[in-house]
Amino acid sequence: MREGGLQDFHIAAHCLKSELLDAWWLRWRDGSLAAAVTTGRQLERLKAGDLSHLDHGEVSRLERPEHQRFGMCGRLHTYPVPDRPIRPFRGPSGSPHPHLPKEPF
Fold it and tell me: Measured between alpha carbons, how far is 6 from 71 in angstroms, rounded to an integer?
């Protein structure tokens, strides 16, 4: 690769995975881009003194995958995919947070 093979490697990798580009784009758009846009909107609301979105928070978790899967940059499926929705986590008291009672103090 030091002698010019890197470009050939990139071309070969593109040929192998180009059919996945549309799915990757959708996952990016619906995952990390959507999260960043939401964060930007929340920051704008905070700057304007609007705190109302803070009332909609919840604690949730993803189910542990049956088998660990890693990609080149870390774990795959960091953001949920349509067949694996995020389910809100409920503690023993029925509260969304395991250490807080269901009703406010």
Answer: 20
Q: Is the pLDDT of residue 80 over 60?
A: no
Name the E strands within the chain.
60-61, 70-71, 74-75, 87-88
- Return the closest-CA partner of residue 77 out of 26, 20, 27: 27
Contact 53, 42 (CB under 8 A): yes
CB distance 68 to 75 below 8 Å: yes
State how far the Cα of 18 lies from the Cα of 3, in Å rounded to an integer: 25
CA-derived radius of gyration, the chain: 20
Question: What share of the chain has pLDDT > 70, as a percent?
Answer: 62
- Closest CA relative to residue 45, chosen from 31, 55, 60: 55
Confidence of residue 42 (pLDDT cuts 50, 70, 90): very high
> Which residues fall within 8 angstroms of residue 18, CB to CB, at 6 or more apart?
none
* Mean predicted confidence (pLDDT) in 32-39: 94
